[in-house]
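Researcher: Can you fold this with iron/sulfur cluster in place?
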Amino acid sequence: MSGKKLTLENVKKFAANAAEKNGWVLNPDPDFLESVVEGLYNTYLEFGYMLCPCREGWGERERDRDVICPCHYAAADVAEFGHCYCGLYVSEKFIEAGGEPGSIPERRPEELMP
Ligand code: SF4
């Protein structure tokens, strides 16, 4: 990720690859997906790394490393709730069952939050 700046398209691809690698799928709602990907792109532009777009970060890569997408909490959240905290990544099973991502508990420990 060094050198050339990522484009919105790169971020989309990145998310698709991350989903595939982890056995998840991207949120099937195109507008929702677009908005989270844009959020991710914006945090990347602001901080230089893809900070979770639905969390507050420290703005320092080292302190935010647990919430750089895909965050350290995504696998457990997808397994337990069918989707990650932002609803970017979902499980196929959850979608097939007609699930829609909603609000879930924050798994990031309080002591790691700004
Ligand atoms: S909750 Fe985690 S996996 Fe989902 S968009 Fe935010 S950082 Fe990425």
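Model: Folded with iron/sulfur cluster in place. DSSP finds four helices and two strands in the chain.
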